[in-house]
Design brief:
homodimer; 258 residues; alpha+beta; D-Maltodextrin-Binding Protein, domain 2; 14 strands; Inositol_monophosphatase-like (chains A, B); hydrolase (chains A, B); metal-binding (chains A, B); inositol monophosphate 1-phosphatase activity (chains A, B); magnesium (chains A, B)
Chain lengths: 258, 258
């Protein structure tokens, strides 16, 4: 069960975490490499995650947590209530740009997305909503974007997949009105919620998409792994989300074109 | 000769044009194709250009004008004082996103950039400055970004050049910390001025880079066509701008690598 009380709590935690991040940016950020030279983590990622986990443990001690950093990055099952957290989505942007990064929190129950929060910290724009609740930016309710065809919209892309034409991503990009590369899954999913982009193709871990899925599903977008199979929430996967019309076109005319 | 009076006038024109654009976005925007289905122009591009040209003709009747739309897109020479205008840079974003576009104005004298203005309309951020004047965002003076190597920064790219590895753009991207694609030259040049990105590679017309060059030169960035030759201001050209270190690396290790 989720509740209005839980929504308000999460919003308060996010505001507090964002205030901490904004102050931290003015001080020293310690950057480390994870799997390779462009896979970064900072002390702020870790401290933000610790802050959020402490809150969840205090208020919802029986819940499970899946989160990007420090040993929380796998989970046995999605049974019960599960919190899925990316403390800083777009760490490269956080380090290089000091903007264009998000905090993301999702609440799932038995594998079903109930609440999603994507917070663009430096713009102070919190996109949030839930199953049958609608989608909001801060206090303002958003309108569901129109369903548009691939040829009628911009699409967010992972640059590598586009450049190497992985799963025809290059061809999909050329069939669209153009690709955009922001370096942050949260920013790309926000662009879909606003109606700016018709879709997003990338290579993502569950904390990159969990919150966004709740929101884009509420707005009627389709999503899956790039081959059309359900996302597993258990590993990095090639990810596709798009307007219903563009999703079908991408599946039939590109990914599964024989 | 440019003057403080001219700077204030241009800032006033830009504010007036931006107010017109913001109102127009709420009303009907008429979109037309130019050379192909992704090369768009709107009535707002044309009306904004007409507004700016009227101002220049009134206040500086002897000056020449080079501008993107409606027959102003070539100029016989850069002799004397020349205004170079892009009324809406990033028209695709303007149409699809209703944000991430700029108004750009440059003042050149005998081919030398004197003043540059890049106005991110929806963020209400005016980046401006001039030769020996410094670079400002609204009223705040910016600090010159550090010189960084290619491997230490993000780089803005034209998606097509990256995907097709034109002039080794794909390899350059892989040698950097990552590429970003915004679809707007003004946004990319702003990212360099802020120190967010170390460079930008694209295929640009003079009105796409004229204002930005004045500002990035003031901050010590290097620029040229992609082969290292001076930009001609007379046609669409492959464009390179980068921090001094990254510029030399891109020229020696990628573009002219034998």
């Amino acid at each position: 069960m989720t509740s209005q009380k839980m929504i308000v709590e999460i919003q308060e935690w996010l505001k507090e975490a964002a205030a901490f991040i904004r102050v931290s940016l003015a001080n020293k950020v310690t950057v480390s490499q994870k799997s390779n030279r462009t896979d970064l983590v900072t002390n702020i990622d870790e401290e933000t995650q610790t802050f959020l986990i402490k809150k969840i443990n205090k208020y919802y001690p029986n819940d499970s947590i899946l989160a990007e950093e420090k040993g929380f990055d796998t989970i046995e099952s999605l049974d019960g209530r599960v919190w899925i957290i990316d403390p800083i989505d777009g760490t490269m942007n956080f380090v290089m740009e000091q903007e264009n990064f998000c905090i993301m929190i999702a609440v799932y129950e038995n594998g079903v997305g109930k609440l999603g929060f994507i917070y663009d910290v430096m713009k102070d724009e919190l996109y949030w909503g839930g199953k049958d609740l609608g989608v909001f930016v801060n206090d303002q309710k958003l309108q569901q974007p129109k369903d548009r065809a691939l040829s009628d919209g911009l699409i967010g892309m992972n640059a590598y997949m586009y450049g190497k034409n992985i799963y025809a991503a290059g061809e999909i990009g050329h069939a669209s009105m153009g690709i955009r590369v922001s370096g942050c899954a949260g920013i790309e999913l926000i662009a879909m919620l606003k109606g700016n982009h018709i879709g997003y193709i990338s290579n993502l871990s569950p904390w990159d998409y969990a919150a966004g899925l709740v929101l884009i599903e509420e707005f009627g977008f389709k999503y899956s792994d790039i081959e059309g199979k359900p996302l597993t929430f258990s590993k990095r996967e090639y990810f596709l989300a798009a307007s219903p019309t563009a999703y079908t076109q991408i599946q039939n005319d590109f990914v599964h074109k024989s």
